[in-house]
Amino acid sequence: MFYWVVKAILWPFLHFVFRPWAEGVDNVPRKGPVILAGNHLSFADHFFGALFLPRKVISLGKSDYFTGRGIKGALSRAFFSGVGTVPIDRSGGKASEAALRTGKRILGEGQVLAIYPEGTRSHDGRLYKGKTGVARLALEARVPVIPWAMVNTFEMMPPGRPLPKLGIRPGVKFGKPLDFSRYYGMEEDRLVLRAVTDEIMYALMELSGQEYVDKYAASAKVEAARAAREAAKGKPRRD
């Protein structure tokens, strides 16, 4: 219920201020389990991604969003609960298995589960290599995957910017469902998982128009930060 209350409050405000747009909404089935696999450009994705869908969209978010203290922590919990986020531990290992079980439970209830295969927001607006968890979940739960591309949210609110820019219309595109039934029963095969994931990322690349980079987003962020530090060290000092 809280999800729909938050959506009812946000929709008129966001529509009036930002004039968001959507394409391919009819590609998302009105009932039954489905995975939305999306690019992740901005914090604004949480606001605009599911805005046009008549179904509740549940996403898996890091548990840190729900463990903060004080007023800020309370606001964070309220917001992420309101946009349909379920807390998970994303530290890897056994935590990854727990996330998989949570995802399967949500899909087993016939719901819509949103996943960002890149694992983190893009730091430069490009599309990065997808992690295979989305493929494993799709094969184990035996559900279709719909590419879900955000457009203009990076330009509107890039990482590190606290407030969105006005005058930029954010959009969302929903692609045709991807059927991976030919791979059912092969979810332990790493080559199959990579093939499925790459097919999803290729569909996202075509849908979003982003440049694709064949490396993980987290590694690219580390490399970019290291390059920035080295560049700063090389600058002449100002007296």
TrEMBL record:
Pfam families (alphabetical): Acyltransferase (PF01553)
Annotated ranges, domain Phospholipid/glycerol acyltransferase: 34-153
SUPFAM superfamilies: Glycerol-3-phosphate (1)-acyltransferase (SSF69593)
Segments passing through the bilayer: none
EC number: 2.3.1.51
GO molecular function: 1-acylglycerol-3-phosphate O-acyltransferase activity
GO biological process, one term: phosphatidic acid biosynthetic process
This protein's GO CC annotations: plasma membrane
Keywords: Acyltransferase, Transferase
Protein name, UniProt field: 1-acyl-sn-glycerol-3-phosphate acyltransferase
Lineage, highest ranks first: Bacteria, Bacillati, Actinomycetota, Actinomycetes, Streptosporangiales
